[in-house]
Automatic annotation (TrEMBL):
<feature type="active site" description="Acyl-thioester intermediate">
    <location>
        <position position="89"/>
    </location>
</feature>
<dbReference type="InterPro" id="IPR020613">
    <property type="entry name" value="Thiolase_CS"/>
</dbReference>
<keyword id="KW-0808">Transferase</keyword>
<feature type="domain" description="Thiolase C-terminal">
    <location>
        <begin position="271"/>
        <end position="392"/>
    </location>
</feature>
<feature type="active site" description="Proton acceptor">
    <location>
        <position position="379"/>
    </location>
</feature>
<dbReference type="GO" id="GO:0003988">
    <property type="term" value="F:acetyl-CoA C-acyltransferase activity"/>
</dbReference>
<feature type="domain" description="Thiolase N-terminal">
    <location>
        <begin position="5"/>
        <end position="262"/>
    </location>
</feature>
<dbReference type="InterPro" id="IPR002155">
    <property type="entry name" value="Thiolase"/>
</dbReference>
<dbReference type="InterPro" id="IPR016039">
    <property type="entry name" value="Thiolase-like"/>
</dbReference>
<keyword id="KW-0012">Acyltransferase</keyword>
<dbReference type="Pfam" id="PF00108">
    <property type="entry name" value="Thiolase_N"/>
</dbReference>
<dbReference type="Pfam" id="PF02803">
    <property type="entry name" value="Thiolase_C"/>
</dbReference>
<protein>
    <submittedName>
        <fullName>Acetyl-CoA C-acyltransferase</fullName>
        <ecNumber>2.3.1.16</ecNumber>
    </submittedName>
</protein>
<comment type="similarity">
    <text>Belongs to the thiolase-like superfamily. Thiolase family.</text>
</comment>
<dbReference type="InterPro" id="IPR020616">
    <property type="entry name" value="Thiolase_N"/>
</dbReference>
<feature type="active site" description="Proton acceptor">
    <location>
        <position position="349"/>
    </location>
</feature>
<dbReference type="InterPro" id="IPR020617">
    <property type="entry name" value="Thiolase_C"/>
</dbReference>
Length: 393
């Protein structure tokens, strides 16, 4: 079977809700990423076989196949198709998996895996908030309710609390992790460590104002974060320890990577950034929901013939601080190798765009540190997790 290589990767800097990306239609923001991937790789746009784009809230401006709409808003020719993927928070990581599988199979040679989410313009939970009538319109079907009779609704917030309790994590531990995320992101931002991976885009405010200012830094980083400030934020649930301060930030953004096989490398004359060493995913308990990255990582390492110590850098999505902390505890990974430039608590979590966002950051972090193996995983709604292991070249 052919190998899969990543030849280009880019992301926008994260925008806060109502912030510097609020005036961008998500389709046009995603199109900026597609155009930049073409520029970075030097690939003939007509040679792109497909665009696979992750997006969670596929309604409104993100409906009607946001991937195809992004292609039509970009410089890619009409001959390039596009399809949209929803694997919840892992949507664009799944787009990467699909892209890699396509080029490895030889059915395609060059595929863009991308993601977009405007959480300002299409708020979280919008798809599930559609009108319900006479017991109809709710995703929890009668058969699901029969299988899970004590669960009114699957909740990531409840899952985060369950994770903290199961792994004996205190609020102090979660708050300290959140502070560390902001500190790592602060250092990375101030030292320009994100510069190569960020696509500058014009600031467009919610009222459509074009300021002429370029958005080049993640808007959610709190450079003056203190433990006292983080500890002062009230829990999201009564009696809980999960707060808005130790959870990921609502975020607008678009990201993408270009994936090719060896045939394309030779014919297009391009150099790879990394080889995709392993891909896998699992389904897990949908009630605790967020625990899946732990068994998924263990399974991936076993299948890849690697140990946790063989991996140089990890990106584990900081949906809630309890997730990476539990993951560290269960896997025995070196904390100094985890989310080395901060994570979603500081940088934001643009839902369907986060998979390729984390991969982009991982690629450039490996390059900067001259390291070899990187592993990315993230928890996903419904109790799932993807794992990708890459080898920097």
């Amino acid at each position: 079977m052919a190998e899969a290589y990543i030849v280009a990767a880019v992301r926008t800097a994260g925008g806060r809700r109502g912030g510097k990306l609020a005036g961008w239609h998500p389709v046009d923001l995603a199109a900026q990423v597609l155009d930049t991937l073409i520029d970075l790789s030097g690939v003939d746009p007509a040679m792109v076989d497909d665009v696979i784009m992750g997006c969670v809230s596929q309604v409104g401006e993100q409906s009607t196949n946001v991937a195809r709409n992004a292609v039509l808003a970009s410089r890619l020719p009409e001959s390039v198709p596009g399809t949209s993927v929803d694997r919840q928070c892992g949507s664009s990581q799944q787009a990467l998996h699909f892209a890699a599988q396509a080029v490895m199979s030889g059915t395609m040679d060059c595929v863009i895996a991308a993601g977009v989410e405007s959480m300002t313009r299409v708020p979280m939970f919008t798809p599930s908030a559609l009108p319900q009538k006479n017991g109809m319109g709710f995703y929890m079907s009668p058969q699901i309710r029969t299988r899970y009779p004590d669960i009114g609704e699957f909740s990531q917030f409840t899952g985060a609390e369950m994770m903290a309790k199961k792994y004996g994590l205190s609020k102090d531990a979660l708050d300290q992790y959140a502070l560390d995320s902001h500190r790592r992101a602060t250092i990375a931002t101030r030292e320009g460590l994100f510069k190569d991976e960020i696509l500058p885009v014009e600031v467009r405010l919610a009222d459509g104002t074009k300021s002429g200012e370029m958005h080049v830094s993640d808007e959610g980083v709190r450079f003056d974060a203190t433990i006292e400030g983080i500890q002062s934020v009230k829990p999201l649930q009564e009696g809980g320890i999960i707060t808005a301060a130790n959870a990921s930030q609502i975020c607008d953004g678009a990201t993408g990577v270009m994936v090719v096989n060896e045939k394309a490398l030779k014919s297009m004359g391009i150099a790879p950034m990394a080889r995709i060493h392993h891909l896998s995913m699992i389904g897990h308990d949908p009630v605790i929901m967020l625990e899946a990255p732990i068994p998924a990582t263990q399974l991936a390492l076993k299948r890849a013939g690697l140990t946790i110590d063989d991996i140089d850098l990890f990106e584990v999505n900081e949906a809630f601080a309890s997730v990476p902390l539990a993951w560290l505890q269960a896997t025995g990974a070196d904390p100094s190798r985890l989310n080395v430039h901060g994570g979603a608590i500081a940088l934001g979590h643009p839902l369907g765009a986060s998979g390729t966002k984390l991969m982009t950051t991982l690629l450039y972090a490996l390059k900067r540190r001259s390291k070899r193996f990187g592993l990315q995983t993230m928890c996903e709604g419904g109790g799932m997790a993807n794992v990708a292991i890459i080898e920097r070249l």
